[in-house]
Amino acid sequence: MARHKQEQALSEEKGPQAEEDGEAAGAKGLQGAEPGFQPPEGGFGWIVVFAATWCNGSIFGIQNSFGILYVMLQGDLGDGEKDRTLEFKTALVGALAMGMIFFCSPIVSIFTDRIGCRTTAASGAAIAFIGLLSSSFTKSLEVRYFTYGILFGCGSSFAFQPSLVILGHYFKRRLGLANGIVAGGSCLFSMSLPFFLKTIGSTIGLAHTFQVLSAFMFIQILLSLTFRPILPPSCDSHHDRQDKLGSRSMKQQCWSQMRKYFNMRVFQRKTYRIWAFGIATAVLGYFVPYVHLVKYVEEEFKENKKEWVLLVCLGATSGLGRLVSGRIGDCIPGLKKIFLQVASFMLLGLMCMMIPQCQAFEGVIVVCLFLGLCDGFFITIMAPIAFELVGPMQASQAIGYLLGLMAIPMTAGPPIAGYLHNYFGNYYLAFYLAGVPPIIGGLVLSVVPLIHQRMLKKQQMDSGKDKMLVLDTVINGELLPGCPSTEAHV
User: Fold this and answer.
1) More reliable by pLDDT, 265 or 465
2) Which residue ranges traverse the bilayer (predicted)?
């Protein structure tokens, strides 16, 4: 215990974030599994980075290119579906898929922590493969709600989240750089897939396009096998847990099991609650341009036949933003990283409102360049901020619950925009309103570092008591998230 207190005192010198958010707990957790463990900061980790890059790229490349599939889906319906809710129904296919990625995330966190990153990611990629492949055998929107929206969306969630968690096993000092490479490299898919889909879509049709896309997920099944956790399970904690459970009542045992699988400790942190609420608010308008921008350009600039260029621009600057923000995030200490998200959300909201103001196609291209840059900064910084807020032991749960909170607003945004288009006959009001939630969310996020600093000042008034509070509340296990683990013994 004395040795642990010394290590905690040393960790406090590294930065204020370690005092509140679990640096000491992370040190103790790593001690329980393997004394003196330090991530390798490379080696086999770069292979894991490549696999995670393919995972992120194939999933979000397809999702971000849905504007092309959106137009193809409407053309595939023929003349039999000409009701006033067509925009709403078609947008719901892509919105469901994106929403399910985030809606399933709390459950994915449980699977990731209990059975490991490798099994979870490979199973999810297999489900996503089945969803895309089966989408090619139907023309019904209702069936595609299930095959593309549910199966592909859920499978993508199970494949995507472990690719974020596993990076923490191989990188610590370079974690921001690793996330930036993964996020930036994956944008190569977002840049190339719109042109690829536009070319093959007009040649082989929608059904065969889904089959081609399913091949990306088949490759991901194989690459997911590289998600090997570094730390083995701790043996003695299992016996200790059995002794503890044997002395408890049935009600206590049931409650203990529920807490093991649904760890809600992250919500005890005020800073995490505000951060999660701000992001959930902001993403209500986040996915609207990806779904409706291609259709909007077709209506406003009928003579232009290169609307796919917009999605390429989104992907290109998003990749640049992810690479740059990853490196910048490593240089910004503690929760000050959140200000990158604040700036990106504020600018994203402003750019959404600027879309109807563009009088020429070139103006929309400029807006898309900024939209992609905002997307890159927001996505890359998300995982490092989660590690800062709750510490490494609870990072998987924190990311999972955050993505789950994002599910409903992200799913609702595009269909609402489609409904507004059907009602007013244009996308003007839809894009104006889509810019409001990111601005509000950015304002909410800006108060998180201020609240954090206030909490630190209170801690400094009674440092001894607050050190004990950190020890009592932060510890969440003896392994890094994503290792098949047992109940921690504290």
Assistant:
1) 265
2) 44-71, 91-108, 115-133, 145-168, 175-197, 209-231, 272-288, 308-326, 338-357, 363-387, 399-421, 427-451
